Amino acid sequence: MIKNIVHFNVQQIADSGQCFRMNNIGNNSYSLVAFNKYLEIEQLDKNQVVFRCEDEDFETLWADYFDLNYDYGNVVHSIHNSEDDFLKKAVEYGEGIRILKQDLWETIVSFIISQRKSIPAIKSTIEKLCMKFGEKKSFEGKVYYTFPSPEVIAEQSMEGLQGLALGYRDKYILNTAKTIANGEVNLELIKQMSREDAILELKKLSGVGEKVANCVALYGMHKIDAFPVDVWIKRVVDTYYGGFFDTNTYKGFNGIVQQYMFYYMKNKYKS
DNA sequence: TCCCAGGCTTGGT
DNA sequence: ACCAAGCATGGG
User: Could you say which protein family the record assigns here (predicted)?
Assistant: First the structure.
């Protein structure tokens, strides 16, 4: 179905480093697997987007997944009206970015894997993980693999996790899966927590530190004030903000600000 | 080949 | 509490 959406650009979302199972399939189209479903999405023009999926899945899943009920215009305008020249340019460059509402468990595993890996390498490892432990499904002839549950990974041994290019992160993934599968850390409870409490709880997981916990809060819990600082954001802060970025300036939507910064710095300045 | 990648854990002060 | 080394492996 065709939808008219402002501040929405599929290519920018796919290349913004927040999701790892969204792939270009040509003709301004992308495939995506999330919440055990398969979607093809095409950008027809600036404000027209085609969603190829079951009709009911758009309303019950994808509209929420792509955060279509959040007013990004408000964020864009408040940055336009600021004195922040760097951020103005970043918004102009990536004004179609949205913060996705991804599955919490998948986001945890994905960002544990992400540490000291390039985005293509992250995507490759996650796809291997899904092909090995996920459920094989198909939608209109397209075969895809779901993201494996904590329980399925928890019952593996260290040997079972070899061949996925996890490297030293293999033990983090196995320990985290076990911790969640046995109820030591409860994701349903975390979903109800404040950003601060959720981040504290997430950091109990093996392989989850400050940065990964903030990414999980932002992309897996829609805590849009979370401000993950990775090497690219560090570069932004050092280069354009004199080494300190005051998160009080954009209080309430620092995560969206962070995403504009990341996308602009990483893709515009490939230094 | 060399360097870097959406960092974390551990052990030493 | 802070700091630095070590970490496995793919991709450019």
Answer: Belongs to the type-1 OGG1 family.
Q: Do residue A150 and residue A74 come from a single domain?
A: no
Average pLDDT for A99-108: 98
User: CA A196, CA A187: separation in Å to the nearest integer?
Assistant: 15
* Nucleotide closest to A118 measured between CA and C1': B5
A259: the nucleotide nearest its CA (via C1') is B6
Q: Are residues A61 and A115 in the same domain?
A: no
What is the C-alpha end-to-end distance of chain A, expressed in Å? Answer: 40
* pLDDT of residue A271 exceeding 50: no
- Whether the beta carbon of A187 falls within 7 A of nucleic chain C: the reply is no
Overall size of chain A counted in residues: 271
Domain-located, residue A262: no
> Distance, angstroms, CA A231 to C1' B5?
9
Percentage of the residues of chain A whose pLDDT score is greater than 70: 99
How many structural domains are present in chain A?
A: 2
Looking at A181, A201, A220, the residue that finishes a domain is A220
- Residue A100 CA and nucleotide B3 C1' are separated, in Å, by 32
Percent of chain A surpassing pLDDT 90: 99
Q: What are phi and psi of A205, to 5 degrees?
A: -75, 145
A120 touches strand C (CB under 7 A): yes
Q: Does residue A42 belong to any structural domain of this protein?
A: yes
Residues facing A45 on adjacent strands: A48
Query: Which residues span the domain enclosing A79?
Result: 2-93
Q: Are A235 and A210 in contact (CB under 8 A)?
A: no
pLDDT of residue A242: 93
CATH of the domain at A85: 3.30.310.260
